């Protein structure tokens, strides 16, 4: 257990407590499914705007459909995971959050890179992403290891 001394008092991080990782794998999967649903729902009003823009520009605006879902997802991740709670809506519902191991808060760019690595990893290495959690400390995934982050229970 990592401990540090601050003004003569021993301080331990909540990330050092093994209970902070109980059920994290399952909670991450459910949170991911909830977030996919939310991004899908958020895409609908933007799709309507792109449809109207396409009509106004004689079809040129419809090219935005190619980047619509990723753009909505990135905005969603930037504003939720990169926000003060360090969790998406799905993660909040599952009582988990993303933390950096160095103790710094998650910023929007780190949140987006974390998610892009997750999506890219799933395209190429789907089984490996989840298998890594079985053998890594703190049930960290491959993209967690690359970015120095960890997902933990927010309630512990």
Automatic annotation (TrEMBL):
InterPro entries: Pra-immunoreactive (IPR051791), RDD (IPR010432). It is found in: Cell membrane. Residues 26-147 form the RDD domain. The keyword Cell membrane applies. It is a multi-pass membrane protein. It comes from Ollibium composti. This is RDD family protein. Coiled coil: none annotated. Keywords: Cell membrane, Membrane, Transmembrane, Transmembrane helix. Its main location: membrane. It comes from the Bacteria. The chain crosses the membrane at residues 33-53, 60-78, 116-135.
């Amino acid at each position: 257990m990592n401990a540090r001394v601050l003004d003569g008092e021993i301080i331990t991080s909540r990330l050092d407590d093994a209970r902070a990782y109980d059920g994290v794998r399952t909670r991450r999967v459910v949170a991911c499914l909830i977030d996919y649903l939310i991004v899908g729902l958020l895409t609908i009003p933007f799709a309507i705007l792109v449809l109207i823009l396409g009509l106004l520009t004689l079809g040129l605006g419809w090219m935005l459909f190619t980047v619509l879902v990723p753009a909505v997802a990135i905005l969603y991740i930037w504003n939720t995971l990169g926000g003060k709670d360090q969790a998406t809506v799905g993660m909040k519902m599952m009582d988990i959050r993303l933390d950096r191991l160095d103790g710094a808060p998650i910023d929007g760019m780190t949140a987006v890179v974390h998610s892009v690595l997750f999506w890219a990893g799933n395209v190429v290495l789907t089984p490996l992403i989840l298998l890594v959690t079985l053998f890594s400390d703190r049930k960290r995934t491959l993209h967690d290891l690359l970015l120095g982050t960890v997902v933990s229970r927010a309630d512990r």
